[in-house]
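Board notes, transcribed. Complex of a protein with phosphoric acid mono(formamide)ester.
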Amino acid sequence: MNNFYSVQDVSNLDELIITAQAMKAHPLKHQALGNGKLIVLLFFNPSLRTKLSTQKAAMNLGMQVISMDMKDSWAWEFEDGVTMNKDKAEHIKEAANVICSYADIIAIRSFPSLKDKKEDYRDQVIRSFIKYSTKPIINLESAIRHPLQSFADLLTMREHCKIEKPKIVLSWAPHPKALPQAVSNSFLEWMHAAGHQVTVTYPQGYELDESFMQGHQVEYDQEKAFAEADIIYVKNWSPLSNYGQVVSQDANWMITADKLSRTNNAKLLHCLPVRRNVVIADDAIDSDHSAIYQLAENRLYTAQAVIYNILKANA
Ligand code: CP
C-alpha cells in the first residue's frame, strides 16, 4: 500500500483485517518499524477520534508525530495556473514539496464546503496532495470519503456479528446541521468491497450519490428496513439536491430502543460524535445493542494496520 485514499487502495481486504487484529493483540510488537520516521497530520477541520487514534497508532509503531491545525498555517491555493493576488498565500505545490522534505507519511483531514456539490466531489484538497506529494498520503476524512472510519466499521462488525450474511442497514437520522456524506459514502463502498449488500433507509430527497450505491438497495420505510436487521449503522447526511441544506429534521427517524427491539438483536454502530436524543436516544445508545465505544477503540488498530502496511511497503 502506498496511498490510503479509498478502499480501492486496499489490495486484500481480508489480509488488512487480519493485520488490524494482530495490531490489537500486540499493539507494541512493531515499534522498531517506524523508528526514525515522521508522520505529519494536517487538520483543516476538527477531530477527536481520528486525531488521537492516528497519533497513537503511529506512536505504537515507533513513529514520531506532528499534528498541525491548519488554522495556524497560511491560506493555501489548490488551483493551478492562478494569479495569487488575493487571500491565498501558499500554493499546494510548495506546501506539499516542503512537507515531503520533513515527513515520511502525510495524513490529511479536509471536509467539504457543502456549498457546491460538483466542486466538493472533486475532492480537491486530498487529490492535490496525492498529485504533488512524493510521500504516502492517508485520508483522515476528505470531502467525500472517510476510509479509516469504514475500515473500523468493518472490523467491529466482524467482531460483533458472526452471521455469514448479516442484514446490514444504513439509516439516516435527523441532525440540526448539514453534514457531509463522507462517512455514508465510504461505508457503502467498503461494505460492497467486503461482499455485503446494505439496505439504506432515509426520507425521500436524501438519496446518496449513485456511484456509492452500487450493489445496495433503498427502503424508504425505516420500520421495514429494521425488520430482521443484524447491524444498524446510523448516520446523518445532508441531501445532494438542496445541497448543504437541512431539509428534514423529522424526529420520527431518531433511533430508539423500541426500534432496536424490533430487529434481530442488531448491533448499533455510529462513527461519533453523536447528538444524543436527536440522532440516537439515550435508551438506544446506552443499551446492550450499542457497540459505539468498541468501534471508536477499533479506530486505533485499523489506523495502525494502515500505517504498518505503508511503512512495510516503503521500507
Ligand atoms: N468518527 C470520527 O472521525 O471522529 P472525529 O471527527 O472526532 O475524528
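The longest strand covers residues 38-43. DSSP finds eleven helices and eleven strands in the chain.
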